Amino acid sequence: MRVLLVEDDALLGDGIQAGLRQQGFVADWVRDGVAADLALEGGDFAAVVLDIGLPRRSGLEVLARLRARGKAVPVLILTARDTVDDRIAGLDAGADDYLVKPFDLGELAARLRALARRSAGNASAALTVGALVLDPAAREVRWRGEPCALAPKEFALLEAFMLSAGRVLTREQLEEKLYGWGEETGSNAVEVHVHHLRKKIAPSVVQTIRGVGYVLPRDLA
Ligand code: CA
Q1: Element of type H or E holding 135
Q2: Alpha helices in the chain (DSSP H)
Q3: 52 CA distance to ligand 1 centroid (A)?
């Protein structure tokens, strides 16, 4: 799951990015409001972690501009302890959740998973498509009740497919969900991961739509 982190404090940002990566997120990090605006115009993020006090453009302004553009991506705002007004203004401006600094990285990760899940229309923690179940918190995949051991990128790819079950995704769309900025992407990385998913789960788990992309069928059995 790819998230955008917007935080100007170098130490805190570094810690959050490392923590999110450890939890299996692809986490891109920008340090001011203008860079956040640019990133959100182009990028395909499952959620945004947004500090309020930012240089060049405040977090609230970034949020207002994002919602004005009609983007529904879930946003979790970070606020200082004594700024209840910021939290109210943030929620009113379209934030979906907030955390007060300092916070626990495990809690941040859990809240991001919950936000992404709800925005994809899933109320329960695990994603289920037919006989396939993926639990993002436990980082566990089961096919017909049997556990499947997946590498981190394979897990992320499967999660992206399951969140869009029945929809064809192009290789570019999948790469975008799988790799952060500056991460090395082999030209056939998606193909290789799809190959491994078919081998480790079932040949039918991902179908190739020639010349277009890939799809995880909704009626997987
Ligand atoms: Ca700040």
Answers
A1: strand 132-135
A2: 10-22, 33-42, 59-68, 84-92, 105-119, 152-163, 171-178, 189-200
A3: 6
Task: Output the CA 10–ligand 1 centroid distance in Å.
Answer: 10
pLDDT tens across 40-79, in order? Answer: 998 889 999 999 999 999 999 999 999 998 888 999 999 8
Q: How far is the CA of 5 from the centre of ligand 1 (A)?
A: 12
Q: What is the pLDDT of residues 180-220, one digit of tens each?
A: 887 877 778 899 999 999 999 999 999 999 999 999 999 88
The encoded tokens of residue 56 equal: 């060049």
What is the C-alpha to C-alpha distance for residues 119 and 123, in angstroms, rounded to an integer?
9
Predicted TM-score (pTM) of the model is 0.78
CB atoms within 10 A of CB 65: 17
Residue located via tokens 């990028």: 43
